[in-house]
Amino acid sequence: MTDPLITQLRPMPEDWRRALAVVAHPDDLEYGCSAAVAAWTDQGREIAYVLATRGEAGIDTLDPERCAALREREQRASAAVVGVSVVEFLDHKDGVIEYGTALRRDIAAAIRRHRPELVITLNHRDTWGGVAWNTPDHVAVGRATLDAAADAGNRWIFPELTEQGLESWNGVRWVAIAGSSRPTHAVDATAGLDRAVRSLLEHRTYIEALTEEAPETYARDFLTRTTTATGERFGGRPAVAFEVFGR
Ligand SMILES: [Zn+2]
Question: Would I find Ribosomal protein among this entry's keywords (predicted)?
Answer without folding.
Answer: no
